[in-house]
Specification:
The chain has 14 helices and twelve strands. By secondary structure, the chain is an alpha/beta fold. The longest helix is centred in the last third of the chain and has 21 residues.
């Protein structure tokens, strides 16, 4: 067996199951705020188109994807991020969701010779860590604490570590913090990538969930384009329909950016065997071409954030996120004890922050925080907030 498999930690939800083992819960409906799975309705016009195309099950899909899909993605990204065009032929590649692509990307770009580093935020999406280990690299975790507005503390990276870095994972808006990097911050990182010759992989799957319609989060390609870099050298972004369009089961996303990197990634993927089914590609075109349902999706999240925040603000300390659908509050006791007690007393599930982070230099930046995913229906989110408040007030 690959010895690097032994370095993989259990996924956060496995740790959660172990934490809750043997716990008896009250006789009230369970409310899960632990998993970031959107519960809003999938767009009916996308579902209908998928059903209409089921005869495509008879066709092998092409790894590069349908030209029409790549073109719809290129048009969407150009509009959304103020690009001067994105080459659908060379700078766009459909993928089966960002999770699969973020993992596979490291396998394709890491040179195992030497001592490669993969730098990522901490807390983080655990795929970054597993991708680094199985690509033969060491992960370097940068704390995202309140003192840096919950963004990675890049000042902690030494010159030697930048020299060894081959891949920098970003997540903006962040999971679980909801913090976003500005265009200026992204441009500074592009400068570092130029200086030290590493690739930036920007996970932007939460980019379409944000509170202010007039102020959408910036993207890595947007930052590069503003510098006049329309080849997007060393820059690759990852986007998905899962959160944007409430289509997690469609497993549809894309990567876009540096054409040379994507050419090599495409070659890897032809061996990886991960082409998106044709019917999913056609349905995805419908989703990328429509913004009305995305605006409505944001409205629902705004309403839930306001309702939940109004209930919890008197008893919990938290910042309103710049994007994504998570609250990242401090807990009045140890985060694991908080999650277990809340589950035991109120039958509400939240995810301990320490499960999403790694201890570095004696500090775990997720400790004494929990992630609350406001993905359920509004009434459920409101009920969960009331239960959480009652639990805190009982302490």
């Amino acid at each position: 067996m690959n010895p690097e498999l032994q370095r993989l930690q259990p996924y956060p939800f496995e740790k959660l199951r172990e934490l809750f083992s043997g716990v008896e819960t009250p006789d009230k409906p369970h409310i899960a705020l632990s998993i970031g799975e959107p519960k809003h309705a999938s767009p009916a016009f996308v579902v209908d188109r998928l059903a209409q195309e089921l005869s495509r099950l008879a066709n092998y899909p092409n790894t590069k994807g349908l030209p029409e899909l790549r073109q719809s993605i290129a048009h969407w990204a150009t509009r959304r991020f103020a690009l001067e065009g994105l080459d659908a032929e060379k700078q766009v590649l459909p993928v089966n969701g960002t999770r699969e692509a973020l993992f596979a990307f490291a396998q394709a770009v890491i040179d195992r010779r030497g001592q490669p580093l993969v730098i990522s935020p901490n807390p983080f999406y655990q795929i970054y860590e597993g991708a680094a280990y199985l690509a033969g690299a060491e992960p370097l975790f940068l704390p995202c604490g309140e003192n840096t507005q919950f963004l990675p503390d890049f000042t902690q990276v030494t010159e030697e570590q930048w020299r060894r870095c081959q891949l920098l994972y970003l997540c903006t808006p962040g999971n679980p913090t909801g913090a976003t990097l500005s265009i200026e911050q992204l441009q500074a990182l592009i400068g570092l990538a130029d200086e030290h010759d590493f690739v930036i992989a920007s996970d932007e799957c939460y980019s379409e969930i944000y509170p202010d319609e007039s102020n959408p989060p910036a993207g890595l390609l947007q930052a590069a384009a503003a510098m006049g870099r329309h080849d997007y050298q060393r820059c690759v972004v990852f986007h998905s329909l899962s959160k944007r369009s409430n289509l997690p089961g469609l497993r549809s996303g894309f990567v876009a950016g540096d054409a040379d990197i994507l050419a090599a990634f495409l070659q890897y993927r032809t061996y990886h065997g991960c082409a998106m089914p044709v019917q999913h590609q056609i349905a995805s075109i419908q989703a990328w071409n429509d913004e009305t349902h995305v605006v409505e999706n944001r409205r629902l999240y705004r309403n839930k954030f306001k309702a939940v925040s109004d209930i919890l603000a008197p008893v919990l300390r938290f910042e309103q996120p710049d994007g994504a659908f998570y609250l990242w509050p401090e807990t009045p006791l140890d985060d694991q004890a908080f999650a277990r007690g809340l589950y035991q007393q109120q039958h509400v599930t939240v995810l301990p922050g320490s499960f999403l982070s790694r201890e570095v230099n004696g500090n775990n930046p997720g400790k004494n925080r929990v992630r609350m995913a406001l993905v359920a229906e509004p009434e459920e989110c409101t009920e969960a907030a009331h239960r959480i408040r009652r639990f805190i007030e009982s302490l």
